[in-house]
Structure prediction request, 130 residues.
Amino acid sequence: MNERETEDLAPTLEELRQRLVDFAAARRWEPFHTPKNLAAALTVEAGELLEIFQWLTPEQASAVMADPDRAHRVRDEVADVLAYLLQFCTAVGVDPLPALAAKIERNELRFPVPGAPAAGDGGVNPEGVS
Prediction:
Protein backbone atom coordinates (compact mmCIF):
# COMPACT_ATOMS: atom_id res chain seq x y z
CA MET A 1 0.00 0.00 0.00
CA ASN A 2 1.50 3.37 -0.97
CA GLU A 3 1.49 6.51 1.18
CA ARG A 4 -1.47 8.09 -0.65
CA GLU A 5 -3.62 4.97 -0.17
CA THR A 6 -2.79 5.02 3.56
CA GLU A 7 -3.78 8.69 3.74
CA ASP A 8 -7.11 7.89 2.06
CA LEU A 9 -7.83 5.34 4.80
CA ALA A 10 -6.97 7.71 7.65
CA PRO A 11 -10.05 9.13 9.37
CA THR A 12 -10.67 12.84 9.11
CA LEU A 13 -10.41 15.10 12.13
CA GLU A 14 -14.19 15.54 12.04
CA GLU A 15 -14.75 11.77 11.97
CA LEU A 16 -12.49 11.34 14.99
CA ARG A 17 -14.19 14.21 16.80
CA GLN A 18 -17.59 12.62 16.19
CA ARG A 19 -16.37 9.22 17.41
CA LEU A 20 -15.23 10.88 20.64
CA VAL A 21 -18.62 12.60 21.03
CA ASP A 22 -20.40 9.29 20.43
CA PHE A 23 -18.05 7.41 22.78
CA ALA A 24 -18.73 9.85 25.63
CA ALA A 25 -22.48 9.95 24.94
CA ALA A 26 -22.79 6.16 24.97
CA ARG A 27 -21.25 6.14 28.43
CA ARG A 28 -23.26 9.16 29.61
CA TRP A 29 -20.06 11.13 30.33
CA GLU A 30 -21.28 14.44 28.85
CA PRO A 31 -22.00 16.01 32.28
CA PHE A 32 -18.33 15.55 33.16
CA HIS A 33 -16.99 16.91 29.87
CA THR A 34 -17.00 20.55 30.93
CA PRO A 35 -14.40 22.96 29.58
CA LYS A 36 -12.63 23.01 32.96
CA ASN A 37 -12.53 19.24 33.30
CA LEU A 38 -11.39 18.72 29.72
CA ALA A 39 -8.69 21.38 30.03
CA ALA A 40 -7.47 19.70 33.22
CA ALA A 41 -7.47 16.26 31.56
CA LEU A 42 -5.60 17.70 28.57
CA THR A 43 -2.95 19.08 30.91
CA VAL A 44 -2.60 15.73 32.69
CA GLU A 45 -2.15 13.88 29.39
CA ALA A 46 0.39 16.45 28.16
CA GLY A 47 2.26 15.88 31.42
CA GLU A 48 2.27 12.14 30.77
CA LEU A 49 3.80 12.82 27.35
CA LEU A 50 6.43 15.03 28.98
CA GLU A 51 7.18 12.33 31.53
CA ILE A 52 8.54 10.07 28.78
CA PHE A 53 11.19 12.69 27.97
CA GLN A 54 11.85 14.01 31.46
CA TRP A 55 15.52 13.93 32.40
CA LEU A 56 16.66 12.70 28.98
CA THR A 57 19.51 14.42 27.21
CA PRO A 58 18.65 15.96 23.82
CA GLU A 59 20.35 12.99 22.15
CA GLN A 60 18.36 10.47 24.21
CA ALA A 61 15.12 12.34 23.52
CA SER A 62 15.82 12.28 19.79
CA ALA A 63 16.21 8.48 19.95
CA VAL A 64 13.00 7.74 21.88
CA MET A 65 11.05 6.67 18.79
CA ALA A 66 13.71 4.06 17.95
CA ASP A 67 12.69 2.10 21.07
CA PRO A 68 9.45 0.23 20.24
CA ASP A 69 8.14 0.34 23.83
CA ARG A 70 8.79 4.05 24.25
CA ALA A 71 7.48 4.80 20.76
CA HIS A 72 4.24 3.02 21.66
CA ARG A 73 3.94 5.12 24.82
CA VAL A 74 4.58 8.32 22.84
CA ARG A 75 1.89 7.43 20.28
CA ASP A 76 -0.59 6.61 23.06
CA GLU A 77 0.06 9.89 24.89
CA VAL A 78 -0.13 11.90 21.66
CA ALA A 79 -3.49 10.23 21.00
CA ASP A 80 -4.69 11.07 24.52
CA VAL A 81 -3.63 14.72 24.16
CA LEU A 82 -5.33 15.01 20.78
CA ALA A 83 -8.49 13.29 22.04
CA TYR A 84 -8.86 15.67 24.97
CA LEU A 85 -8.03 18.67 22.78
CA LEU A 86 -10.75 17.69 20.30
CA GLN A 87 -13.24 17.13 23.11
CA PHE A 88 -12.31 20.50 24.62
CA CYS A 89 -12.78 22.19 21.24
CA THR A 90 -16.20 20.56 20.91
CA ALA A 91 -17.20 21.76 24.38
CA VAL A 92 -16.21 25.38 23.72
CA GLY A 93 -17.16 25.55 20.04
CA VAL A 94 -13.68 26.04 18.58
CA ASP A 95 -12.86 24.58 15.16
CA PRO A 96 -9.19 23.68 15.76
CA LEU A 97 -7.93 23.81 12.17
CA PRO A 98 -9.02 27.40 11.39
CA ALA A 99 -7.89 28.42 14.90
CA LEU A 100 -4.44 26.97 14.20
CA ALA A 101 -4.25 28.56 10.75
CA ALA A 102 -5.12 31.97 12.21
CA LYS A 103 -2.54 31.56 14.98
CA ILE A 104 0.19 30.62 12.47
CA GLU A 105 -0.67 33.71 10.42
CA ARG A 106 -0.43 35.94 13.51
CA ASN A 107 2.90 34.34 14.46
CA GLU A 108 4.28 34.86 10.96
CA LEU A 109 3.55 38.57 11.33
CA ARG A 110 4.75 38.72 14.91
CA PHE A 111 7.98 36.80 14.26
CA PRO A 112 9.22 37.69 10.77
CA VAL A 113 11.99 35.71 9.12
CA PRO A 114 15.34 37.18 10.27
CA GLY A 115 16.84 39.36 7.56
CA ALA A 116 13.59 39.62 5.60
CA PRO A 117 12.43 43.15 4.82
CA ALA A 118 9.88 44.38 7.33
CA ALA A 119 6.55 45.79 6.20
CA GLY A 120 7.12 49.34 5.03
CA ASP A 121 10.81 48.67 4.26
CA GLY A 122 10.26 48.15 0.55
CA GLY A 123 9.25 44.54 0.98
CA VAL A 124 6.37 43.00 -0.93
CA ASN A 125 3.06 43.48 0.82
CA PRO A 126 0.49 40.69 0.26
CA GLU A 127 -2.07 43.29 -0.85
CA GLY A 128 0.43 44.79 -3.30
CA VAL A 129 0.67 48.03 -1.30
CA SER A 130 4.14 49.09 -0.18
Remarks:
- Residues 22 and 28 are 10 Å apart (CA to CA).
